[in-house]
Amino acid sequence: MKIKDIINKLDLEVIVEGDLTIEVKGGYASDLLSNVMAQSKAGDLWLTIQGHQNIVAIAQLIELSGIIVTEDFAIDEDTIKKAEECEINILQSKLSTYEIAGKLYELGIK
Asked: Where do the domains of the chain lie?
C-alpha cells in the first residue's frame, strides 16, 4: 500500500511531504533508536513518539518509507527542516502508538 493511501485511511497529518507514492512494505514501532536501527527494514513505516533530528538520520539510513509521530508529540523545527532536505515523510497522529499499529495491521501492513 502506498503511504498516501495510509495517510487518507488513518487521517494522518502530513508534517513533511517526501515521496507519498512510496510503497510501505511493513511497519516497526519503537522509541529506542538502537532497536529501530537493528530491527526495522527498508520500506517500513516507523511509529515513534520521538521528535528529534536523529529520527530523520535513522529513516534515511534504513531507507524507511516514513515516520509517524504518535500521541501528538512535538516535532522539533530542526527535525522538520532536516526531513525536508532529505525528503523523508513525517506524519503525525493524536492516537497512541498501539492504536496506530493496530490500524496499520488491519490495513494489511505487517
From this structure: 3-106
Q: What is the pLDDT of residues 56-93, one digit of tens each?
A: 999 999 999 999 999 999 999 999 999 999 999 999 99
3-106 belongs to which homologous superfamily?
Answer: HprK N-terminal domain-like (3.40.1390.20)
If phi over 0 gives left and psi between -120 and 50 gives alpha, with beta otherwise, what is residue 60?
alpha
At residue 22, the pLDDT reads 96
Half-sphere exposure of 24 (CA within 13 A, CB side): 24
Distance from C-alpha of 12 to C-alpha of 95, rounded to nearest angstrom:
10
Residue 1, number of CB atoms within 10 A of its CB: 15
